[in-house]
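Q: Got a minute? One more chain.
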Amino acid sequence: MYFCTMRRIITRFVDLFYIKPLRRIIPQETFRYAFAGGLNLLFNMVLYWFCFNYVLDKRDTDFGVVVVSAPILAFLITFVVTFFTGFYLARNIAFGKSEVHGAKQLFRYAQVVAVNVGINYFGLKLLVEVLGFYPSPSYAAIQVVTTVFSYLAQRFYTFRTHRCS
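A: Always. Here it is, folded:
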């Protein structure tokens, strides 16, 4: 019951911003995905910044066997949290009419996210550790790439609403 109420509240909030000019050019499902994804991305970016700057204090962490750089560890911490918030928002707000159900959605979502993890990891390694760019703007730039990929994969694979003929 709690999740149904929460879903209705979030959906109504998102739909408040789905105004007439947007209705003519963007399908409601796409708008909801973009809005909910934007909320999750904003949460992701703030959480990443907080973890990198305050939790890790911009310092690498030595686990004895391996040293993990602060940008990578901040990403991993952020990932654990936003994986579940992203799945909830995509499944319940954006793609609530999907014909794919249950564990299959979660498995497919995890597959798409795994590709995004690779893009994030190698992108951060390249931009921060090889090219020397600052972590937060690098992370933001990588999110543009992963957002486009993620929308297409989630829309046409994970939460497919119709079969291709």
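A: The first strand starts at residue 61 and ends at 62.
Q: Perfect, thanks.
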